[in-house]
């Protein structure tokens, strides 16, 4: 676990993930404490599930006297830029993150030193919280003041399971970006280096469709398989790009 460095550290390194001092008055009756000894992963009778339901009721009921105060306190930051979401990440409260995302909270905000919620969950070894954040499409490539991604932070704190998951998430993202880039080239002629032949266009459309279907059919895959799919796509598109960039011969006048 991260060592005790306090505010001189990176904001992720407290010995225990403390609830921000401004929260307990309104939210502590609804939310479990953030200590590592608490039960965060129980069944329907666990503190986590029961309190998430109470928090949801509080947020949904705009007539509730504590509603506006609760939202204000949830987003209030401490001196290094952490709000309640960081406490939830340290504690592995994935359902709290998913719930608050429904209310439009910014999951990509950074602390004073550039740490995101993803960095925080990675440092504390919260794999399920990482999965929730990735599902919610946070920026997995965000850098902190050390120019570290969340995967780099997980590696620094020897959170092996988090490192492996984030490597897999990065491979997923790389394949999706390749597909999106090709689709943009097909639909926006200005992004292409030259005119695309109709047969090449159809070939790329079908290839992108096939890769999207492959992703849908293979939710459980490996980094190697994802990179193989990406390489297949690149091997298909590169000759077409070369063809498009090659000037066509000028027909001689008769």
From TrEMBL:
SMART domains reported for this sequence = ANK
ANK repeat copies, ranges: 80-112, 113-145
**Keywords, comma-separated and alphabetical:** ANK repeat, Repeat
Which Gene3D superfamilies does its entry note? 1.20.1270.10, Ankyrin repeat-containing domain
State a single Pfam family of this protein. Answer: Ank_2
Composition bias type Low complexity, residue spans? 1-14
- Which InterPro entries does this UniProt record tie to the protein? Ankyrin_rpt (IPR002110), Ankyrin_rpt-contain_sf (IPR036770), HSP70_C_sf (IPR029048)
**Region annotation (Disordered) ranges:** 1-28
GO CC, sorted alphabetically, is:
cytoplasm
Membrane spanning residue stretches: none
Q: What is this protein called?
A: Ankyrin repeat domain-containing protein 45 isoform X1
Q: What species was this sequence derived from? A: Phascolarctos cinereus (Koala)
